[in-house]
Amino acid sequence: MNCRNFRDMIPAFEADELDDEQLGAFLTHYRECATCREDLSIQLLVDRGLDHLETGKSFNLRKEVEQTVTESSRRLKARRKLEKIAYTLELVTVGIALAAGAAMLLIW
Ligand SMILES: [Zn+2]
Question: Which entry of 51, 70, 83, 96 is 20 to 30 Å from 18 by CA?
Answer without folding.
Answer: 51
